[in-house]
């Protein structure tokens, strides 16, 4: 890992997004409209850019790290960016290194998702679950419990509009906010 | 018992019954002045309650409801409690009624299972209206249960009939003297003896089930079709519903939550409670809690030198006195016999008197042990006999041997040390503590308030291989102050030495340096 030098910080924040000054953002990161990044959240684009979609919620102590995918160690220069879809929730203390993240996923508190996992849409990774093996989570998969049992959900987890609305109001009055750099397309 | 931060199993106390437990798992019966563990007390169910809604149910009602809560459900997928969620549903055509209808469904916050997953329609009421799934075997089971209940009743009646018949055969004195029993009954004014009837054979025998001759053909698809693990239930989920045992995940059904109990523990010897919770399910307090932790000095290992076979090494233990009375602790060899009660001579007379008084009391008040038949005089004698025999038998009851082999000897110090009473305010005392306790400097390393650090010398056995767990033990004798008698009779608190065995696991032995 020492031979990888972090690319220069290039943070692009779309108008409407709420990114707190106290969050730790490293590398080339694009944050979509209406996404909330709490203070003390960490996003590190180590190998390639991270593009975060709309209406995502990234809570305190959450860590999103994009390392070099395990199958692409050979050509480090040609790594595609990590595109995180919309309506994803990264709860307190989660650690996500997944190589692919779709829409409407929930990463519950203190869960760990390794870089060999690719997450599709509507998945829930339960609190404290550790996914490290190479696997692809199909749509609406719910991982729960000590032994990481899996089941298929009926529908996608609902977006938490009311929670996000409240945060949009409250966070700016107590934290410094990073200014948006890009206008909505 | 739960594993708390105090519940460290390197120091264990031998219960009176011989089992090894940590101090936190033991009870102390103040009336017998002995250690009791969960295996040597009788457990009694105090109350049934639901752990979720905290509803209290009388035991009869709980039995009728099959020990399950009516309103609370657990998740058939992950056993967590299901919570009721409200959803608003727009009516089909808006003109009919403008108000949105509230509907409710059950949802699990752990695995996100919901009652909608199995197609259960949403309910209009939050509680009570959830459909119950009847087992197809419930009628049959009911039939069989009632049959056996009938059989049991019949057997009982038959036995009584047989006994009465036996009685008839014996010629009583009254018969010999010419006064018949019937005549006597008439004279006394008792109703006439009913003729003994043979109980009717009224038990309805259930038709026994038969093994079916036709067995379904073996489904070869089981071998050929690939399994989708997301569609079939796990063993755990299947056995959670033993009456249905669903194979597919779509057939699981919310399960009524099983009731919890509050139980009180009772010493088997003296029938006093050692633990009794408060009746209210919301309360976590106890009415009676005679935990050993409040009565017996706590032993903790502070440091131990590297343990080498055959070499003496230093062990420092911390002793804490939890009681409000000063105590003196002395050490005895591990195998020294432990007497049930060791009264100090001057108090001996009192204790004997006590026991006599107790006997008198028990003979005056109707005792539980009194047999239902027999005259009152007989029962008096009976209680005397049962009491004395039960006492002697209880005393004679030898505890099982302690299942732990000692492979390390302790040099038992001849001197004793004093532990001052516990003082909650001592921690906040800024002044330097002055205590005029004359300590054996070889034994007591350091002391503070009700704690003392004791140095012992232990020697692991000669022939011990490297990396074996070194276990040592001694008998701790401490002066116990029993305040029960003083409260009841205004006497001086009884003091006596209470002995118990303590076993220490010191760690692994290491090689020679």
Automatic annotation (TrEMBL), chain A:
Instruction: Give UniProt keywords alphabetically.
Output: Cytoplasm, Cytoskeleton
Q: GO BP, one example?
A: mitotic spindle organization
Which GO cellular component terms, listed alphabetically, does the Swiss-Prot or TrEMBL entry include?
A: dynactin complex
Top-level taxonomic group: Eukaryota
Record-stated family: Belongs to the dynactin subunits 5/6 family. Dynactin subunit 6 subfamily.
Task: Explain the purpose of this protein.
Answer: Part of the dynactin complex that activates the molecular motor dynein for ultra-processive transport along microtubules.
Name of the molecule in the record: Dynactin subunit 6
Q: Which organism is it from?
A: Henosepilachna vigintioctopunctata
TrEMBL record, chain B:
The subcellular localization recorded is: Cytoplasm, Cell cortex; Cytoplasm, Cytoskeleton, Microtubule organizing center, Centrosome; Cytoplasm, Cytoskeleton, Stress fiber; Cytoplasm, Myofibril
Q: Which UniProt keywords apply?
A: Acetylation, Coiled coil, Cytoplasm, Cytoskeleton, Isopeptide bond, Phosphoprotein, Ubl conjugation
Query: Can you list the GO cellular component terms from the UniProt entry?
Result: cell cortex; centrosome; dynactin complex; myofibril; stress fiber
Q: What is its main location?
A: cytoplasm
Instruction: Identify the Pfam families for this entry.
Output: Dynactin_p62 (PF05502)
Describe the protein's quaternary organization and the partners it interacts with. Answer: Subunit of dynactin, a multiprotein complex part of a tripartite complex with dynein and a adapter, such as BICDL1, BICD2 or HOOK3. The dynactin complex is built around ACTR1A/ACTB filament and consists of an actin-related filament composed of a shoulder domain, a pointed end and a barbed end. Its length is defined by its flexible shoulder domain. The soulder is composed of 2 DCTN1 subunits, 4 DCTN2 and 2 DCTN3. The 4 DCNT2 (via N-terminus) bind the ACTR1A filament and act as molecular rulers to determine the length. The pointed end is important for binding dynein-dynactin cargo adapters.
Q: Where is the composition biased (Low complexity)?
A: 362-375
Task: Please report the name of this protein according to its UniProt entry.
Answer: Dynactin subunit 4
| UniProt region (Disordered), positions on chain | 349-375
User: Family per UniProt?
Assistant: Belongs to the dynactin subunit 4 family.
In terms of domain of life, where is this protein from? Eukaryota
């Amino acid at each position: 890992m020492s031979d990888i030098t972090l690319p220069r910080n290039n943070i692009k924040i779309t108008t409407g997004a709420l990114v707190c000054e106290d969050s730790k953002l490293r590398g080339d990161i694009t944050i979509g409209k209406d996404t909330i990044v709490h203070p003390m959240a960490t996003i590190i684009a180590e190998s390639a850019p991270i593009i975060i979609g709309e209406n995502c919620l990234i809570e305190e102590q959450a860590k999103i790290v994009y390392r070099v995918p395990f199958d692409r160690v050979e050509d480090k220069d040609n790594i595609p960016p990590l595109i995180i879809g919309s309506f994803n929730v990264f709860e307190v203390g989660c650690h996500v290194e997944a190589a692919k993240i779709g829409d409407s996923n929930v990463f519950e508190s203190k869960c760990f998702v390794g870089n060999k996992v690719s997450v599709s849409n509507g998945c829930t990774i339960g609190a404290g679950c550790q996914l490290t093996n190479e696997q692809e989570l199909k749509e609406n998969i719910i991982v729960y419990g000590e032994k990481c049992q899996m089941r298929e959900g009926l529908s996608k987890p609902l977006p938490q509009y009311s929670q996000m609305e409240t945060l949009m109001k409250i966070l700016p009055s107590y934290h410094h906010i990073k200014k948006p750099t890009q206008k909505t397309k | 018992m739960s594993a708390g931060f105090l519940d460290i199993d390197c120091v264990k106390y031998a219960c009176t019954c011989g089992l090894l437990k940590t101090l936190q798992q033991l009870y102390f019966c103040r009336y017998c002045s002995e250690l009791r563990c969960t295996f040597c007390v009788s457990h009694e169910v105090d109350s049934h309650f639901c752990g979720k809604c905290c509803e209290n149910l009388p035991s009869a009602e709980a039995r009728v409801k099959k020990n399950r809560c009516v309103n609370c459900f657990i998740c058939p997928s992950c056993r967590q409690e299901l919570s009721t969620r409200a959803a608003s549903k727009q009516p089909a055509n808006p003109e009919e009624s403008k108000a949105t209808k509230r509907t409710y469904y059950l949802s699990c916050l752990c695995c996100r299972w919901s009652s909608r997953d199995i197609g259960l329609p949403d309910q209009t009421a939050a509680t009570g209206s959830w459909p119950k799934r009847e087992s197809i075997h419930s009628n049959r089971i009911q039939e069989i249960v009632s049959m056996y209940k009938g059989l049991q009743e019949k057997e009982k009646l038959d036995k009584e009939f047989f006994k009465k018949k036996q009685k008839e055969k014996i010629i009583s004195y009254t018969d010999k003297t010419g006064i018949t029993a019937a005549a006597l009954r008439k004279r006394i004014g008792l109703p006439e003896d009913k003729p003994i009837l043979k109980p009717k054979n009224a038990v309805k025998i259930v038709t026994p089930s038969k093994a079916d001759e036709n067995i379904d053909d073996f489904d070869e698809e089981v071998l050929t079709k690939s399994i989708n693990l997301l569609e079939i239930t796990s063993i755990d989920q299947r056995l959670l519903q033993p009456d249905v045992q669903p194979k597919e995940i779509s057939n699981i059904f919310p399960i009524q939550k099983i009731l919890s109990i509050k139980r009180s523990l009772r010493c088997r010897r003296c029938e006093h409670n050692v633990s009794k919770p408060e009746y209210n399910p919301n309360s976590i307090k106890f009415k009676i809690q005679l935990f050993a932790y409040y009565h017996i000095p706590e032993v903790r290992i502070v440091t131990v030198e590297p343990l080498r076979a055959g070499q003496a090494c230093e062990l420092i233990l911390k002793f804490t006195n939890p009681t409000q009375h000063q105590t003196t602790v002395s050490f005895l060899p591990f195998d020294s016999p432990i007497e049930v009660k060791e009264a100090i001579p001057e108090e001996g007379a009192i204790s004997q008197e006590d026991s006599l008084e107790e006997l008198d009391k028990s003979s005056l008040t109707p005792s539980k042990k009194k047999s239902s038949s027999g005259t009152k005089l007989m029962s008096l004698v009976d209680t005397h006999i049962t009491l004395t025999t039960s006492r002697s038998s209880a005393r004679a009851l030898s505890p099982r041997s302690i299942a732990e082999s000692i492979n390390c000897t302790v040099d038992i110090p001849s001197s004793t040390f004093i532990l001052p009473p516990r003082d909650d305010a001592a921690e906040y005392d800024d002044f330097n503590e002055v205590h005029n306790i004359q300590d054996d400097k070889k034994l007591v390393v350091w002391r503070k308030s009700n704690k003392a650090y004791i140095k012992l010398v232990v020697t692991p056995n000669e022939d011990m291989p490297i990396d074996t767990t070194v276990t040592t033990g001694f008998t701790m004798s401490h002066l116990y102050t029993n305040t029960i008698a003083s409260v009841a009779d205004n006497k001086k608190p009884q003091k006596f030495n209470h002995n118990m065995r303590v076993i220490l696991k010191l760690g692994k032995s290491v090689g020679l340096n």
